[in-house]
TrEMBL record:
GO molecular function: beta-glucosidase activity
PROSITE patterns found in the cross-reference section: GLYCOSYL_HYDROL_F1_1, GLYCOSYL_HYDROL_F1_2
Organism: Anaerocolumna jejuensis DSM 15929
Protein family (similarity comment): Belongs to the glycosyl hydrolase 1 family.
GO cellular component labels: cytosol
Pfam families: Glyco_hydro_1 (PF00232)
One GO BP: carbohydrate catabolic process
Protein name as annotated: 6-phospho-beta-glucosidase
Length: 489
């Protein structure tokens, strides 16, 4: 068999990724405002089904939380990164990270998004964190919004459906660019921008119950439109403040294969895949695709657009496309009787040729190469993989260490396929950040026990543990891989 070298361009950005609401903890410290994520367990204790109804004011919620409601919720503790960030970044540097993807919590920068003045303590925290990255020559890649809208957007607005939220967001983005721009060359506007269609609360602060006067789908399309405008305005603002900075969009790179070669299954797959790209199309091309406008019209919905909206979208086109990639599954026109597989927020028909993680996500390194080629052929802008990883239940062995060959294999096989996409398919890929480079609270399970990290954090789902950090075997593997600039041959 032909020997392959798995090469990457000089300066390729190797690193890891996290999000504020999954690691920081300190949810009430130093003037941080309350967020949707801080309150989500309310639905689990039956006080309200947050996703459907919401009759509280922010003050009610604050009082209930202060009285100890859901006090054991893992997201509020995170991994205490707010207090351990220096140690965490030192460990990232030890692995040789060139880049660290993190997010800023809007609620730390503005306690209430309507405040005129930003919260100085929040600014100071992120400045210190960014300086710490720079100390080790780690390039920060900063996401402005990663699934954590301020609660006020639900209680006092109708989430992103309210056009005023755009101004609030841009005020926040401006503070970030002005205060942190000297440390940051790479920005992302919204994490998994397409996610609002699948979970309207966490991405759009949209609660169905608040839209009894209209079709909820109509509200989601309108909220998406406002988020597109906010993203475009943020891109333009960032370029005007720091012309050298690059700012991109971020999508969930779902990938479906036709379950059979029946034309019906192919058509179902094509339609599904078209849906996946439609909002990134706006961010890259600066305009709505006809098929999305048709879909909105066919559903009897209407998009309210102001005369300036088209030029805002045109002037705010992104510099790169970034994405998360974990798994693939299949599409069939008729799913009755077929096995289904769960995935990253969406289910698909189970692919009999793939292995599954403990959570049923179907691992597919070749699907990453297919995704890179699809994205590059479509957009012709640099690509950045900003989330890829394997969630697993790690066990501490008798020797006191964590041996995680499954994670190493997942990493190696995905990296090989990235190299093939660059060297054989001509894809322009600028970086790779492993999701959850340090153990963090999982988004879908909201627990610690689904672990992604190269670094183990000693805390369980109930907050028991020392929070001590400990490198796993994969830590040393990734360190070697980065030192060899990805040559895993
Ligand atoms: C992505 C999110 C991340 C992250 C990841 C893994 O969709 O952007 O925030 O959590 O999925 O998902 P999970 O934590 O559910 O395993």
């Amino acid at each position: 068999m032909e020997e392959k070298n798995y090469k990457f361009p000089d300066g390729f950005l190797w690193g890891g990724a996290t999000a504020a609401n999954q690691i920081e903890g300190a949810w009430k410290e130093d003037g941080k405002g309350i967020t949707v994520e801080d309150c989500l367990p309310y639905r689990e204790v039956g006080i309200a089904d947050f996703t459907k109804q919401f009759h509280f004011t922010t003050k009610d919620m604050e009082e209930a939380l202060a009285a100890g409601a859901d006090s054991n919720y893992p997201k509020r503790r995170g991994i205490q990164h707010y207090h351990y960030y220096k140690e965490d970044i030192r460990l990232f540097a030890e692995m040789g990270f060139k880049v660290y993807r993190m997010s800023i919590a809007w609620s730390r920068i503005f306690t209430d998004p309507r405040d005129e003045k930003p919260n100085e303590a929040g600014i100071a925290f992120y400045k210190d964190l960014l300086k710490e990255c720079r100390k080790y020559n780690i390039e920060p890649l900063v996401t402005l919004s990663h699934y954590d809208p301020p609660l006020v957007l639900i209680t006092d607005y109708r989430g992103w459906y309210s056009r005023e939220v755009i101004d609030l967001f841009i005020k926040y983005a401006k503070v970030c660019f002005e205060q942190f721009g000297e440390y940051v060359n790479y920005w992302i506007t919204f994490n998994e921008v397409d996610a609002m269609l699948r979970h309207p609360v966490t991405s759009g602060a949209l609660v169905e119950d608040r839209f009894q006067d209209m079709n909820f789908e109509q509200a989601i399309y309108q909220a998406m439109h406002h988020q597109m405008l906010a993203s475009a305005l943020a891109v333009k603002l960032c370029h005007s403040i720091y012309p050298k900075a690059q700012i991109g969009c971020m999508m969930t790179k779902l990938c479906f294969y036709p379950f059979t070669c029946k034309p019906e299954d192919n058509l179902a797959t094509q339609q599904r895949m078209r849906g996946i790209y439609r909002y990134v199309d706006i961010q890259v091309f600066g305009e709505y695709s006809l098929h999305l406008l048709k879909e909105i019209e066919n559903k009897g919905c209407e998009l309210v657009m102001l005369p300036e909206d088209n030029s805002i979208l045109k002037e705010g086109r992104v510099d790169f496309v970034s994405f998360s990639y974990y798994m693939t599954s299949c599409m069939a026109a008729e799913t009755e009787g077929l096995d289904m597989a769960p995935g990253n927020t969406v289910n698909g028909v189970k692919n009999p040729y793939l292995e599954s993680s403990e959570w049923g996500w179907q691992t597919d390194p070749i699907g990453l190469r297919i995704s890179l080629v699809d994205l590059y052929d479509r957009y012709r802008v640099p690509l950045f993989i900003v989330e890829n990883g394997l969630g697993a239940k790690d066990v501490i062995s008798e020797d006191g260490k964590i041996h995680d060959p499954y994670r190493i294999e997942y990493l190696r096989e995905h990296v090989k396929n990235m190299s093939l996409a660059i060297n054989e398919d001509g894809v322009e890929l600028i970086g790779y950040t492993w999701w959850g480079c340090i153990d963090l609270v999982s988004e879908s399970t909201r627990q610690m026990s689904k672990r992604y990290g190269f670094i183990y954090v000693d805390v369980d789902d109930y907050g028991k543990g020392t929070y001590k950090r400990m490198p796993k075997d994969s830590f040393y593997y990734y360190k070697k891989l980065i030192a060899a600039n990805g040559d895993v041959s």
